Amino acid sequence: MSTAAASAHVVIPAPRASVDGDAVDVLPELWVPEARQWLSTSSGRIAPDGYSWMQGVHWVASSGLYQPRRHRSHGPRAFGPTTVFIAQLLSELSPCRPGIEYLMRRTGLCERAVQNHLQILREAGLLAYIVKGTRKQGGSPLASEFALMLPPEFDAALGIRTAGEGSGRRMTGIAESGRKMMAKLATKAAGKVRRPRSSVSSRTAAKGAREGVSEASVTAVSAVSRCTPVGGGFSSISTAGGTSLPPESKLASGQRKSPTLKKSKAVPGGRRKLNRVGRRHQLARELTQELDWLRSCSVPRIAWVARNVADAGWTVTDVRAWLHLRCADVTRVRRGSGLLAALLSGAENVLDTPAKRAEAVTQWRAAQEAARRHRIQQVRAQRERFEGDWEAPRSSVVARQVSQALAQVHEVANGGRDQALAADGSCEQWLVDPQFEQMRAQAEGELMRGVTDLIELAVDSMGREAAERIYGADLVRRAGQLASAARSSLMTLTHR
Questions:
Q1: Which of 43, 134, 155, 407 is the Cys-Cys partner for 160 at CB 3.0 to 4.6 Å?
Q2: Which of 355, 340, 278 is nearest to 310 (CA)?
Q3: Number of domains in the chain
Q4: What's the pTM value of the predicted model, to 2 decimals?
Q5: Does residue 307 register a pLDDT over 90?
């Protein structure tokens, strides 16, 4: 007996009766005990990539060799579509360190169900622990790290030849009898498995398992078929992650298509078009980010409030322009969604055309620019008032005269010496000084251009009464009205 025949005799068991009663030669049952579910004790080999590993996953799912109910009475009854979908999620991770919460969010399953499917993958020989997760008291739990494994039954069933030792074995060839099955597994691995909507019943799973035994399980491979021809190499179809191409004859006849040549159905740009509900939630999310008084509101509630304007094609800029027209310059409210519902009532009927919405946006942007300029003027005036480059005179005589003049102006503003100055006529003489006439003319000229800095500075420093005596009550009143109007967002001041 040759060496290849002896190894085949050891790996392949004796025939046993199938579920349907037909006598077929099948591989032994897949079952890895807990002690051998570690990378150091596993008998399988590490898959080179996620694509090759998914070939092994689909083989285990269709073979029916894994039957968990023979070893325990709880959990899933078979290797079903949900397990394949979880395996697909694991194949996308590098390193494979999945969190339970992540798998629960992607699959919609409970924590116990996710743990059961991970246990199925370990018991089938497809996963092996590298590091097992732990729960530390007072700290966050650590996720387990897995190695993607291919069980030895997979290599024996498809006639895969390997080189090396231990879990680091690599594929060197495949028998002719296993190439057809490898092509089918390559087609399945290239496709994407969707999330199952409902769990498969035990009867359906058991029926699929019985059918998979007769289709996917391979009988004992002879020593002749496992040998490589002298003049040729091994097949290009491998579990090393390469492309799996069918023979040229089948490609020429048009009967088979390569799984790698499928046209992508993705939308250009990588983002699919939103439907009506998606547009509502998108507008609501942007509103909660743009408006401070909506940050504490939930996005679904705001989406329901703004459903009419969202269906009419409004953007977040259009909504802000409408709120400006409604004079809704609020900073703190008690219930933001209720205020937004009141402000947006009938808005889609008033600004019912894109031209009207564009005009409202233009007005809102102009008001924003006017408010920005006003803030700049206020900051500039404040800096000139408190951080100016004026220095006190160094001469003691000049400093004494300046202090006396300021004290006199302060006393006149407070009414201290007002009666005495008025009695001898010095107040009237002081107010008709040519320098003050020049100040009045300069303030009146700036007031015509919309600048009220001089008069506001006099009112803030000396009081309104003293400012009226210097510039006149009419100029002070007009400056106050103009300054109050400039602070409103409903008015824009320009120069001609």
A1: 155
A2: 278
A3: 2
A4: 0.39
A5: yes
- 419 domain-assigned: no
Token match 């579509």: residue? 81
Give one DSSP letter per residue of 423-464, joined into a string: HHTHHHHHHT-HHHHHHHHHHHHHHHTT--HHHHHHHHHH-H
Whether residue 297 sits in one domain with residue 216: no
Q: What Rg value do the Cα atoms of the chain yield, rounded?
A: 42
Query: 317, 336, 364: which is the final residue of a domain?
Result: 364
- Residue tagged 């790698």 (tokens): 260
284 and 257 housed in the same domain:
no
Domain range for 353: 276-364
The answer to whether residues 167 and 308 belong to one domain is no
Q: Which residue has the tokens 């068991």?
A: 13
Q: What is the 3-state secondary structure (H, E, C) of 282-311?
A: HHHHHHHHHCHHHCCCCHHHHHHHCHHHHH
Q: Single out the residue of 17, 50, 18, 44 nearest to residue 31, CA to CA.
A: 44
Which DSSP category does 415 fall into?
T
pLDDT tens track for 344-381: 998 999 999 999 999 999 998 998 898 888 888 888 77
346 is written with which tokens? 């009938």
CA gap 96, 108 in Å, rounded: 20
Q: Which residue is listed with tokens 């003489």?
A: 429
Q: Which residue has the higher pLDDT, 204 or 387?
A: 387
Are residues 63 and 213 in contact, defined by beta-carbon separation less than 8 angstroms?
yes
Q: Which of 364, 397, 414 is the last residue of a domain?
A: 364
Classify each residue of 131-168 as buried b or exposed e, where b means 16 or more C-beta atoms within 10 Å of its C-beta. eeeeeeeeeeeebbbbbbbbbbbbbbbbbbbbeeeebe
**What's the chain's average pLDDT?**
74
- Whether 328 and 234 map to the same domain: the answer is no
CA–CA gap between residue 167 and residue 409 (Å, rounded): 97
* pLDDT grade for 473, boundaries at 50, 70 and 90: confident
